[in-house]
Amino acid sequence: MFRSVLLYITVIFLNLIQFQAQSVNGKVLDKETESAIPYAKIYCLETQNGVIADSTGKWQLDNLINNQMTLQISAQIMETRWLKLMLRAEI
């Protein structure tokens, strides 16, 4: 029996001044228990780069030029999820 895991992602936006590149980071959590989902894969469709979350579910994608992006989040213990983001620069 496959246990359905609801995903809750906390996303923090950061603005990097150099080359107007941006980064985004967050943490992959189980929505019901708020426990971390370790080693989840986060992939940006627009830039075709990805990262793997650490043992605490934390991750960071760097050098994002697009203001809009679609992230694919997947892990063995959860269904693949899609998250659309719009980054805002702070001046």
Describe the structure.
There is one protein chain. By secondary structure, the chain is mainly beta. The protein has a single domain, classed as Immunoglobulins (Immunoglobulin-like). It contains no helices and seven strands. It has strands at 7-15, 22-30, 41-44, 49-52, 58-64, 68-75, 78-86. The strands form two sheets. A four-stranded antiparallel sheet has the order 4-3-6-7, with no helix packed on it. β3 and β4 (49-52) form a beta hairpin. Residues 1-19 have low confidence and may be disordered.
Average pLDDT, all residues: 75
Instruction: Look up the CATH topology.
Output: Immunoglobulin-like
CATH class: Mainly Beta
State the helicity in percent bands: under 10%
Uncertain regions: pLDDT < 50 for 5+ in a row? 1-19
Overall radius of gyration: 13 Å
Number of helices: 0
- The arrangement of helices and strands along the chain is EEEEEEE
Report the span from N to C terminus: 50 Å
